[in-house]
Amino acid sequence: MSAPRLQIDLNKIIHNASTLVSRLQKKGISVTGVTKAFLGAPLIARAMLRGGVTSLGDSRIENIETMRRSGIAAKMILIRSPMLSQVERVVKSANVSVNTEIEVLAALSVAAVKARRTHGVILMVELGDLREGFMPRDVKSALDAIGKLPNLSVMGLGANLACRNGVAPDDRNMAELSALATRSAEGVASDAFTVSGGNSSNLGWVFSGGEVGRINNLRLGESILLGREALNRQPIRGLFTDAFSLVAEVIESKIKPSKPWGTLAQSAFGEMRSVHDRGDINQAIVAIGRQDVDPDGLRPPDGIQLLDASSDHLILSTDGVKLTVGSEISFDLNYSALLRAMTSPHIAKSFADINLFAQPRILAHMLPDAA
Ligand SMILES: *Cc1c(COP(=O)(O)O)cnc(C)c1O
Q: Hey, which of 24, 30, 59, 125 would you mutate to test ligand 1's pocket, going by the most ligand atoms within 8 Å of its Cβ?
């Protein structure tokens, strides 16, 4: 098989999705599967749908178009405010978009009229993380403005926390969103008004046992793909954390001194190094680099240490045996490493069990131990 490659186990993704979907269902919360980390790769999107997510969300219209071209008919939500230059494409391929600017909503309305479609709108509300959203005091007037725009239909409210400043979803900010929803949807049945409370960083709050109020949807990417919540990156009980692994090939393996010699200046990425001399070491190079992956997000197998990375070389040391040239090393990835690896044209995507896709196999004994 070609290296480097991302090995993707669709059955683990189905399992993670269906486990989260059923736990959240008990709280009255539906799941939008977020597809941006894998560029909308149709097989992974279908795995999420197989796991029971009720819609797919992506921040980029290109990824939504990829999924549409592959024949996925599910409801799709653009989860980043549309670019004015893309409103026609948004109305054509996405059923719903999240929105934060009246100017954009007006353009979406024009595009929707032209396309003879109704486009759904979720208004995003700023709850303190200071990324996207209307300030809470402006929500009412924004809703009134949308009411005057033809071919737009308000589906509900949404919020996003943790991504910029790490503000955690809690009883207080979630109650604020619920209260805003109550005020915004007078006379509308609560299940007919989406209140999308956030992303994988909301899971700790949801499962802490308190009241979820009117929150009835979450947009989940990382927790489905990597089996971890997004505030402290702890594994979620009963989920696989290894649905993805990155395999790269050893191209050099030698005994070398651990301390560089010569005059030291900046490295390729502008760092000044001071290296502790620990004598000769087993040093190996695998053929992958910063262009392909975020090296800080890789975890090598036990007994192997990741020393450094440049554009195309990842440098490892091993405790015991020397690695063999041509052998393959498999790394676990975090979200940042996964994002970049999925985007690299140099990394092949290899799906395990692709022919089992029609009949998912859930292997309870393969589940990781997790808190
Ligand atoms: C990326 C994103 C998500 C999904 O976040 P995860 O932490 O991967 O679950 C949800 N909502 C918005 C607006 C996003 O940009």
A: 59
If you take atom 5 of ligand 1, which residue's CA is the nearest one?
199
Closest C-alpha to 241, from 371, 368, 336, 342? 368
Positions marked active-site: 36
Q: Output the pTM of the full model.
A: 0.92
Distance 39 CA to ligand 1 centre (A): 13
- Atom index in ligand 1 nearest the CA of residue 222 equals 8
Burial 220-238 (b: 16+ CB within 10 A, else e): bbbbbbbbbbbbeeebbee
How far is C-alpha 93 from the chain's CA centre? 20
> Which residues have CB under 8 Å from 258's CB, separation 6+?
275, 276, 277, 278, 279, 280, 281, 317
Give tens-digit pLDDT for 71-130. 999 999 999 999 999 999 999 999 999 999 999 999 999 999 999 999 999 999 999 999
